[in-house]
Design goal:
Shape: globular
Strand order of the largest sheet: 1-8-7-2-3-5-4-6
Number of strands: 8
CATH superfamily: Vaccinia Virus protein VP39
Strand content: 15-25%
Order of helices and strands: EHEHEHEEHEHHEHEH
Length: 253
């Protein structure tokens, strides 16, 4: 499979096309299964994907994807998954992912980072107002859960671009930076900011590593990888989003 390219294909098909033990780092954010487009706080839907599956079906779908991905990752390679929990934390998506990644597939857990966005769309979702009867707790944070294959330590030597203060700040598993604010301008309804992919790529890979995003969307992971001197591959089912990602990649040059 050609490097430094986004492929307009379903991620399962794309994963099956990869060579075994080829990928050094995965940085990705699956759809959150929060009915994007019909949710009153998220009224812009994905181009093609139906973001409203039964939770069990959704988790089984993700488990199958990350099971197929396991053999494509190099020994010591890492997987960073950005995910949010549904219904103000009542749907434990992050916990379900941790469970199947470690117990069912065999990934090694490295860390569980809390991304404090300091922003929440449904802040007035109080539940029982001024009452302990049934209060609601909107979540101004998301999860970045990180796993390794077979060994927590990178098995190859390389050059890092981490700066001293970056390492000090980012090695604390509480990251505070704002969410992406350019979704409308860029043309994708659910994007994480470049800061998220930058921290994951610099903390968990050498320069010249191969970085994969299996849910590439508008290409933020790929854009960041290119800026940081990594090779990259992206999978995205929407031609519209692939076109956006390719344009963003071209603008770097």
């Amino acid at each position: 499979m050609e490097l430094n390219k986004i492929y307009c294909i379903d991620c399962i098909r794309g994963i099956n096309m990869l060579e075994d033990n080829f990928i050094d780092l995965v940085v990705t954010s699956p759809p959150y299964n929060v009915d994007l487009g019909n949710n009153k706080y998220n009224q812009n839907s994905y181009n093609l994907y139906n973001d409203n599956r039964e939770h069990y079906e959704y988790i089984e779908w993700l488990k199958n994807i990350f099971s197929l991905l396991y053999v494509k990752i190099s020994k010591g390679g890492r997987v960073c998954i950005n995910i949010g929990d549904g219904k103000n934390g009542q749907v434990p998506t992050s916990s379900d992912i941790i469970s199947f990644m470690t117990k069912d597939i065999g990934y090694i857990p490295i860390t569980h980072i809390i991304w404090n966005k300091s922003q929440v769309g449904n802040r007035t979702s109080w539940g029982s107002w001024l009452s302990p009867s049934c209060p609601s707790f909107p979540t101004p944070f998301e999860h970045i859960i990180v796993f390794a294959k077979e060994n927590k330590k990178l098995q190859s030597k390389g050059e890092t671009d981490l700066e001293r203060q970056e390492f000090i700040d980012w090695s604390l598993a509480l990251w505070g930076f704002p969410p992406e604010t350019s979704q409308k301008r860029i043309g994708h309804p659910a994007m994480f900011p470049e800061e998220l992919s930058k921290r994951c790529i610099k903390m968990f890979s050498w320069i010249d590593s191969v970085v994969l995003d299996i849910f590439a969307g508008a290409g933020t992971t790929l854009v960041t990888a290119k800026k940081l001197g990594r090779d990259y591959i992206g999978f995205e089912i929407s031609q519209e989003y692939c076109d956006i990602a390719n344009q963003r990649l071209l603008e770097i040059e």
